[in-house]
């Protein structure tokens, strides 16, 4: 891939501005944690794994510019930085995961000097980025087993390299299948209201020479009925302990359509996206975004002034509609509560 999503360079965070795609490929240099927080909030960077990496790097920037001279003051300051970053996007669990990992490093570093802690936090943020890329490659390595040579995959929103530190989750499975010499094509839902499928998935698939067909969201059922789709693979922003999955709004509809047409529906996500503290999907907080995203495109209003508008950014697909969850630990199959619990226990024993 000849583009980067996020990296740490010269004590700054370099980030591809995804708001400008597909017409402009521009990189921003962020110097403060507040700038990283704003980038997470305004969708300069988006996708659950990617904002987890961004949050960790935001913490590293906060540490770098801290004027604290003693451990307790530094820790208090970093807790404030973490809280500020966490408030930007409530649904994606990876955001909290990245911040908590950085906080644990601070807790474990009580015997270190503040300069040493700063170095440790910067290195940890870099490590989280590299681990995310390797995790995504493992998801692809395991996950492409569900794809057959000649398959056409429908995806919703963007769960490619742009949603991660690199390679991607759902689209990463496609990349892995192609690397394994399978012929795969992709149909991408445009993904209203802000068109992550049209602007982002189609852009990166074309850039990586993967055959892609763009459809509007309301075409999916007809395209399935006509026999064009063999598999559906989507990403996830949070997965409950029972397998219920929050992803971009419209995913639930795709899952219902796939079930009706007997098409396997898979979720691809790192194991860190599974939130064991959330028992089922009804407990997942759903972000309500600015109504202008629905009402306005490129400064032009699409609907009358003064009407009611809803703009939930995510919906929850029940576990019963999911054929499998593709992770870096392997493919989790129903019943997901049992599979998730077993893998978690296995990880705890090996750590």
In short:
This protein has about 350 residues and is α/β, with parallel strands linked by helices.
Describe the structure.
By secondary structure, the chain is an alpha/beta fold. It folds into two domains: 6-137, Four Helix Bundle (Hemerythrin (Met), subunit A) (Up-down Bundle); 145-350, Translation initiation factor eif-2b, domain 2 (Rossmann fold). Helix content is 41%, strand content 17%. The strands form four sheets. A seven-stranded mixed beta sheet has the order 6-5-4-7-10-15-16. The chain has a four-stranded mixed beta sheet with strand order 11-8-9-14, with helices on one face. A three-stranded antiparallel beta sheet has the order 1-2-3. The chain starts with 5 loop residues before the first strand and ends with a helix. The relative contact order is 0.11.
Spatially, the strands of the biggest sheet line up as 6-5-4-7-10-15-16
Structural class: alpha/beta
In sequence order, what are the helices and strands, one letter per element?
EEEHHHHHEHEHEHEEEHEEHEEEEEH
Name of the CATH architecture of the largest domain: 3-Layer(aba) Sandwich
Distance between the termini: 33 Å
Q: Shape, please?
A: globular
CATH class of the largest domain: Alpha Beta
Total of domains = 2
CATH superfamily of the largest domain: Translation initiation factor eif-2b, domain 2
What topology emerges from the helices and strands here?
Layout: E1 6-9, E2 12-16, E3 27-30, H1 33-41, H2 48-64, H3 71-86, H4 93-108, H5 114-143, E4 152-155, H6 170-179, E5 185-189, H7 196-207, E6 212-215, H8 220-225, E7 231-234, E8 238-240, E9 245-248, H9 251-260, E10 265-268, E11 274-275, H10 292-295, E12 296-297, E13 300-301, E14 314-317, E15 324-327, E16 330-332, H11 336-350
Helix pairs in contact: 1-2, 1-3, 2-3, 2-4, 2-5, 3-4, 4-5, 5-6
């Amino acid at each position: 891939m000849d583009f980067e999503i996020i990296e740490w360079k010269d004590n700054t965070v370099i980030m591809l501005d995804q708001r400008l795609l597909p017409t402009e490929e521009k990189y921003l240099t962020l110097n403060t944690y507040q700038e990283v927080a704003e980038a997470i909030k305004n969708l300069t960077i988006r996708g659950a794994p990617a904002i987890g990496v961004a949050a960790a790097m935001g913490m590293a920037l906060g540490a770098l510019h801290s004027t604290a001279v003693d451990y307790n003051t530094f820790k208090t300051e970093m807790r404030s930085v973490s809280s500020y970053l966490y408030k930007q996007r409530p649904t994606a669990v990876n955001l909290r995961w990245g911040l908590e990992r950085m906080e644990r490093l601070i807790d474990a570093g009580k015997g270190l000097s503040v300069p040493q802690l700063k170095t440790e936090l910067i290195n940890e943020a870099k490590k989280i980025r590299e681990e995310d890329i390797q995790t995504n490659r493992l998801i692809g390595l395991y996950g492409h087993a569900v794809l057959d040579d000649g398959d056409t995959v429908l995806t919703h929103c963007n769960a490619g390299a742009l949603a991660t530190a690199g390679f991607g989750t759902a689209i990463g499975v496609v990349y892995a299948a192609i690397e394994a010499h399978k012929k795969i094509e992709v149909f991408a839902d445009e993904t209203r209201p802000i068109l992550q499928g049209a602007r982002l998935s189609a852009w990166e698939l074309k850039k990586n020479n993967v055959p892609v067909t763009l459809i509007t969201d309301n075409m999916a059922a007809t395209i399935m009925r006509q026999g064009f789709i063999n598999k559906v693979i989507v990403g996830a922003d949070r997965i409950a302990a029972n397998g219920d999955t929050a992803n971009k709004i419209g995913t639930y509809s795709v899952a219902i359509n796939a079930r009706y047409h007997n098409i396997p529906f898979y979720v691809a996500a790192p194991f860190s996206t599974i939130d064991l503290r959330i028992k089922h999907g009804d407990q997942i907080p759903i972000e309500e975004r600015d109504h202008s995203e629905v009402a306005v495109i490129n400064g032009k209003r699409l609907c009358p002034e003064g009407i009611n508008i809803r703009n939930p950014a995510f919906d929850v697909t029940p576990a019963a509609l999911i054929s499998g969850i593709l992770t870096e630990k392997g493919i989790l199959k129903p019943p997901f509560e049992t599979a998730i619990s077993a893998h978690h226990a296995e990880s705890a024993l090996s750590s």
